[in-house]
Write a structure and sequence with these properties.
The complex is a heterodimer. By secondary structure, chain A is mainly α. Chain A has helices at about 5-20, 25-30, 35-40, 50-60, 60-80, 85-115, 120-125, 145-150, 155-160, 165-180, 185-200, 205-230, 240-245, 255-265, 265-275, 285-305, 310-335, 340-345, and strands spanning about 130-135, 140-145. The longest helix of chain B has about 55 residues, at about 240-290. In chain B, strands 1, 2, 8, 9 and 10 form a five-stranded antiparallel β-sheet that branches. In chain B, strands 3, 4, 5, 6 and 7 form a five-stranded antiparallel β-sheet that branches. The chains are: A mainly alpha, B alpha+beta.
Chain lengths: ~350, ~450
């Protein structure tokens, strides 16, 4: 049986070298202080995102830049997975699946807007690109253009029939159409994603499980809070009903306690459950931002910690994803002329 | 050249009103390594002394912005040129020393207007890019629906795709060009569907459903009349692809024109921005130098290190700028400053030895008064490189590569040290190669050594 050093030595060195090109907080602050969108791209030079400048110079289109960013992130996963041992590769594959699910959600939202809300979608549909990608553990081909441009609900299900998402969509989409909301369907897709992630997590070695458990737990917490933020628009939701939309995991806050605090509008209670100590947080949005910062901090610790475990790899992708998210937010803020202070509080 | 540059410590007392003139003259000659004065015993707070604060660039005059603001705008101008991929011709700041400081607000507005113009070009690029993407979307939909065109009612033909619109009709002869021009910004193509008759041309117009209303309005304004579609209208096949490809090429050509316009925008304003850069740099340096004076209402003190060779020149400059109203004191060459700090180390090598000075300082700076290792480093480095490389042909390649890099660096306004070093190393390799008789690994010449 290969030792952890031989399994992870090469990939660990590679990812640590690459992480030196992350912007980190000082770099992000420089981008935030840029006087214009053009100058924001200048401040990305020298980082792993410096290619965005050329993309923007060629097209002048920020949405194209965002699509390029998303594909860059997906390609990063695909490149790394090949260097990992079996269970670790399956875990990172399962972790990367969230990008495929995000794209599927985009395609479903486009279909929903076109066929249920009767809104034009061409200006958004063009950014799905050729719209085909391999998704799920079986790597079945998913045609997102066929999904977003399907003439009926039946065609949507048909387009996804060969993928793991087919059964979920065929069950939840009719209900989404009748309720006029995709929230339940998206929650079902999220649950499918986390089920896959949890089962890949269980297949890891004990050493690897220990190194990523906390990060997975924080992911679950962030997802739960994001769902509660959306549920916040529904008044009078009881604890049992709210708990339906939350997930449980060993290293995450208990869903039942979160649901109880949510139903009694007790944000501080939720914060205490999540953070393990008293905390005064004004709202769920602030709590979500706090959890993201905790996840960043945890990822940085992992990156500096045991170099021979899957923790390094997951930490790298957490930092990668968070940096992409922040830069995307900053570029959009610069485009729309948002003030620095407001942007800083969101980033 | 064999030792570090000898330095002398200057202390000068001048009238506060002469501070600006003296600092500007010192800036012009550029010899001073100014020292920040700290209050000594007897100069306690409240005694009237205003020692230079710790932060650099604090304006002595409250009506002037600080050096940091000038620096920020100067760096912003540099950044914009870097964005455009053009070298900024950095004017000589010495030309503007002693002149009135530039109007920061006016310059900021000018730079902001440049950025707005840049953004305007990007917005046009975005529209063209969106047009290209929508054409691609049209192509994807056309592929999807190619076999599904059905004969339908007069006018818009029902397609299998609910996202495509395919209209059949006729236009008066001569209107086709106008319609194509009007549809240029929309993802729609116009294809002939038959021969002209009775002064009208039968056409098919393929577009996205979302643009149907705009397409209909444009067609109506040019005299469009709907007709019934033919049963085998192959308007989603090769003909449509060819039209889309032609339209895409036109859009890409317009996109390329925008890139040129972007570059031209900078080239048109490069003179103005170059001068602004120099003015800002001069103002920044002037404010920084003024900030190191310790002042009272009437007297200002300046201290600093001067190369011994410039002593007379500096003293004359100060006396002239202060109109004789000054007291100047010099410490002996090589003695430490009154606060015990050692003289700064300067090595001045120009021309051939300049790249080797960079090599030396990368490793560490010799102590003051010590032997300057630069000539020895140059000789040893070139000898070792030549002996190890030892091939005239490969050395020639290095020299040529170095020249190309030098030309590229000069074009982009980047440092030239590395390219010069490569040229010298190439020369050393050629010399050693000739001694060893080796040219591209072959013994083409008689060896003179070994």
């Amino acid at each position: 049986m290969a030792s952890p050093s031989s399994e992870y030595g090469y990939i660990s060195a590679k990812l640590k070298a690459r992480s030196s090109r992350f912007l980190a907080d000082e770099g992000i602050e420089r981008v935030v202080r840029s006087k214009s969108l053009q100058e924001a791209f200048l401040n990305l030079r020298g980082s792993f995102l410096e290619g965005l400048e050329a993309q923007y110079a060629a097209s002048g289109d920020l949405k194209s830049v965002e699509a390029f960013l998303a594909s860059k992130e997906r390609n990063a996963y695909a490149e790394i997975v090949g260097s990992l041992p079996g269970p670790a590769a399956a875990f990172i594959d399962a972790y990367a699946e969230k990008h495929s699910i995000d794209l599927l959600k985009d395609a479903l939202r486009l279909w929903f807007d076109a066929h249920v809300r009767s809104r034009p979608i061409e200006d958004r549909a063009i950014y799905l690109g050729n719209g085909k990608l391999r998704a799920g553990s079986g790597r079945a081909l998913m045609d997102l253009t066929a999904v977003s441009h399907a003439a009926s609900f039946t065609e949507v299900v048909q387009a996804l029939s060969s993928t793991v998402y087919g059964p979920v969509v065929s069950t939840a989409l009719p209900e989404a159409v009748s309720k006029g909301s995709l929230f339940e369907l998206e929650c079902a897709l999220d649950r499918l994603y986390f089920d896959g992630l949890f089962s890949a997590f269980q297949a890891l070695s004990p050493r690897d499980r220990a190194s990523v458990e906390r990060l997975v737990g924080l992911d679950v917490d962030i997802q739960n809070i994001a769902n509660l933020v959306r549920l916040g628009t529904v008044s009078g939701l009881g604890a049992d009903a709210a708990q339906k939309y939350l997930m449980d995991f060993s290293a995450a806050a208990p869903a039942a306690e979160l649901a109880r605090s949510f139903s009694s509008d007790n944000v501080s209670g939720m914060a205490s459950t999540l953070l393990g100590s008293e905390a005064r947080v004004p709202n769920l949005g602030a709590l979500e931002r706090l959890l993201r910062r905790m996840r960043l901090s945890e990822a940085r610790k992992r990156l500096a910690g045991d170099p021979f475990s899957i923790g390094i790899v997951m930490a790298y992708f957490v930092l990668f994803g968070e940096e992409v998210r922040r830069v995307r937010m900053i570029l959009n803020a610069k485009y729309f002329g948002l003030s620095e202070d407001r942007l800083r509080s969101a980033v | 050249m064999m030792f570090t540059v000898p330095m002398e410590y200057l202390s000068a007392a001048i009238l506060s009103k002469d501070k600006a003139a003296v600092s500007d003259e010192l800036l012009r000659i550029g010899s001073l390594d100014a020292v920040r004065i700290h209050p000594s015993q007897g100069m306690e707070k409240g005694s009237g002394w205003d020692a230079a604060p710790a932060g650099a660039g604090v304006a002595a005059d409250d009506s002037l912005p600080g050096a940091e603001r000038f620096r920020d705008l100067r760096v912003r101008i540099e950044g914009l040129f870097t964005l455009a991929g053009l070298p900024l011709e950095r004017g000589d700041p010495a030309r503007f020393v002693g002149q009135a400081f530039p109007d920061l607000e006016a310059l900021s507005r000018s730079v902001d207007s440049l950025v707005e113009s840049m953004q305007g070009i990007r917005e046009r690029q975005k529209e063209l890019q969106t047009g290209i993407l929508r054409l691609e979307e049209l192509g994807r939909q056309a592929d999807f629906s190619a076999s599904r065109v059905r004969k339908g009612a007069k006018g818009a033909t029902q397609t299998f795709s609910s996202f495509l619109s395919l209209r059949f009709g006729t236009l008066p002869e001569g209107e086709t060009g106008s319609v194509e021009a009007a549809l240029a910004s929309i993802a729609a193509i116009v294809m002939p569907s038959g021969p002209a008759s009775d002064g009208r041309i039968p056409l098919a117009v393929l577009g996205l459903k979302g643009d149907e209303a705009r397409i209909k309005a444009i067609l109506a304004s040019h005299g469009w009349e709907d007709i019934v579609a033919g049963a085998d209208s192959p308007f989603l096949g090769e003909q449509a692809k060819a039209e889309m490809e032609a339209k895409r090429r036109r859009l890409e050509s317009d996109l390329a024109a925008c890139s040129k316009e972007y570059t031209d925008l900078f080239e048109k304003r490069s003179g103005e921005l170059s001068e602004a850069w120099a003015r800002l740099k001069a103002a920044e340096l002037s404010l920084r130098l003024r900030s190191v004076f310790a002042t009272t209402d009437s007297v200002a003190f300046l201290s600093g290190w001067i190369p011994a060779a410039d002593r007379d020149r500096v003293e004359n400059v100060i006396r002239k700028a202060a109109d004789g109203r000054c007291y100047i004191e010099w410490l002996d060459v090589g003695a430490p400053a009154p606060d015990g700090t050692e003289p700064p180390v300067a090595m001045e090598h120009r021309g051939f030895l300049a790249p080797f000075q960079t090599l030396v300082t990368n490793f560490g700076v010799p102590g003051y008064g010590a032997v300057d290792p630069t000539p020895f480093v140059a000789a040893a480095y070139l000898s070792m490189f030549g002996l190890m490389f030892g091939d005239a042909g490969h050395g020639l390649v290095l020299v040529l590569a170095g020249f190309f890099l030098l030309l590229a660096a000069r074009k982009k306004g980047k440092p030239e040290m590395l390219s010069k070093l490569i040229i010298y190393c190439g020369g050393a390799a050629i010399a050693a190669g000739l001694l060893f008789g080796s040219v591209f690994g072959m013994p083409l010449l008689p060896p003179l050594w070994f």
